[in-house]
Amino acid sequence: MKGRPRTFDEGQVLSRITDVFWRKGYVGTTMSDLVEATGLTKPSLYAAYGNKASMYSASLDRYIEQQSQTAYVHLKRDDIGATKAIRMFLKASLASVKHPDGPKGCLVLSSSTDDCGGHLPNHETAKVHAMNALAQQTYVAFFERALLSAGRPTSDAQALGTYLMTLHTGLRQMTTRGVSKADLEDVVEFSVGCIAQQLDSCCDQ
């Protein structure tokens, strides 16, 4: 016998769950928080998404999917120059946290903090590590392509990739400290200029 069809939008509810984890982290989020944010009962949440760890895992997946569609997509474009792609990537990332009432910082970064405290379940710990590794690979691969297209050796791709990852993480984290969007965009422009110099200004700006 089939159960009753769900009368709520699972994607919309997952978005609300993600926002709670993003604001409070895994440790700081309680089931009562999730019940309040979604308007669903605990049994309904468990039936739809599993336990708290499963909800967190689904939230991480949703977060990465959203970032891939809005920010990371610029690092995979081949119709614009490298420095322009970096500028668009960083500005798109900042735009996703610019709403004054929205969550700030980076969900994966807060997850890494929870992981350092030993608070994440093993499966979610492995997922966070894999996400960080994938981000690093994306940055390095981007610079390898940029350097190759400029006829330069790719020996600096690793350092440039690590620099961009550090910059991206730092910018998003600074949104939690009350730094204005205008000031952060100034940092973006300064950093893009530094990267352009490292690439010998060979790419379109």
General description of the model:
This protein has 205 residues and is mainly α. It has a domain of 142 residues: Tetracycline Repressor, domain 2, CATH 1.10.357.10. Helix content is 69%, strand content 0%. It contains nine helices and no strands. Helix 5 runs antiparallel to helix 9. The chain is elongated. The protein starts with 9 loop residues before the first helix and ends in a 7-residue tail after the last helix. The C terminus is likely disordered. Keywords: DNA-binding, Transcription, Transcription regulation. GO terms for molecular function: DNA binding. It holds the Pfam family TetR_N.
User: With helices defined by DSSP (H or I, 4 residues minimum), what is the helix count?
Assistant: 9
Largest sheet: none
The CATH architecture designation of the domain at 57-198 is Orthogonal Bundle
What is the percent of helical residues? 55-70%
Which fold name corresponds to the CATH topology of the domain at 57-198? Tetracycline Repressor, domain 2
E-strand count: 0
Summarize the structure.
The chain has 205 residues and is mainly alpha-helical. The protein has helices at residues 10-28, 31-38, 42-49, 52-70, 82-95, 107-116, 122-149, 157-174, 181-198.
Key structural traits:
disordered C terminus; 69% helix; elongated; 205 residues; single chain; mainly alpha; Tetracycline Repressor, domain 2
Secondary structure topology:
Elements: H1 10-28, H2 31-38, H3 42-49, H4 52-70, H5 82-95, H6 107-116, H7 122-149, H8 157-174, H9 181-198
Protein name: TetR family transcriptional regulator
DNA-binding region: 30-49
GO molecular function, one term: DNA binding
